[in-house]
Amino acid sequence: MDGGGGDDRLAAVLRPVRSGNTFEEAVQRILQLVRLGLVPDGGRLPAERELAERLQVSRVTLREALKALQDEGLLETRRGRYGGTFVRYRPEAVEDAGRASAGGDELRRRARRMGDRLEDTLLFREVLEVGAAELCADRRPTGVQAQRLRDCLAATGSAALGDYRRMDTRLHLAVAELCGSPSVAEQYASVRASVNELLDCIPLLPRNLDHSEAQHAALVAALLDGDRERARAVMRAHVAGTAALLRGFLS
């Protein structure tokens, strides 16, 4: 079955991307097509031009999203007259990838068991992180505190893939700890542990990591400038990108 041709069934998923997380949201929308069976295994996705127009993203961003999902074995590109991008959704392959990245079946089962609590966890994280960023900017870290943020930023930028999540957590925890509220830092540490277990179930996508690093740099700059509005906006966009990927892979 061909998924192209302007099929109205796709309209609910292929909505225009509204945030600055164009890559992450494009991945999420395409994954939804696959997971919901709107384009079944062996079916062809709409043409790149149509997908880009529907999602209102650039062809470059769309191709990067498709390539990321091809690398995960969920899509296949064929050349020639009858070519295109085809769905290769094999649940057993997804389970294998989950076992490899999560280190066992338990984390995958835990993510599934969360059900509605997944959305609650992501929302709680957003409230904590955005609030912590605003409070941290209000305090405008200087001296040792400013250097801590710079060091954490440098560590995420130079981290190997295997260490990236640990360094990323360290940067975010530093923001929470420097906001002035020990309670916020304590609650953030707890919710981040849950989020990390979920993140371990999805692959590290190079384009997402590049985007995250750009956001990290913008966040630290806003904090050191004491710009609370910019810090809030950057952090909100940053956690929204992570949430989009989680919803795509774990829905």
**Low-confidence runs of at least 5 consecutive residues:** 1-7, 92-107
Helix content bin:
55-70%
Shape: elongated
Strand order, largest beta sheet:
1-2
CATH class of the largest domain: Mainly Alpha
**Which series of helices and strands comes N to C?**
HHHEEHHHHHHHH
Number of helices: 11
Question: What is the tally of beta strands?
Answer: 2
Strand content: under 5%
Tell me what the CATH architecture of the largest domain is: Up-down Bundle
Major sheet size, sense and barrel closure = 2 strands, antiparallel
Could you state the CATH homologous superfamily of the largest domain? GntR ligand-binding domain-like
How many structural units, i.e. domains? 2
Backbone CA Rg:
19 Å
CATH topology value of the largest domain:
Four Helix Bundle (Hemerythrin (Met), subunit A)
Query: Structural class of the secondary structure composition?
Result: mainly alpha
What's the gist of this structure?
GO terms for molecular function: DNA binding; DNA-binding transcription factor activity. The chain has helices spanning 22-35, 48-55, 59-71, 91-102, 105-114, 117-139, 143-158, 161-177, 182-199, 206-225, 228-250, and strands spanning 75-78, 84-87. Helix content is 69%, strand content 3%.
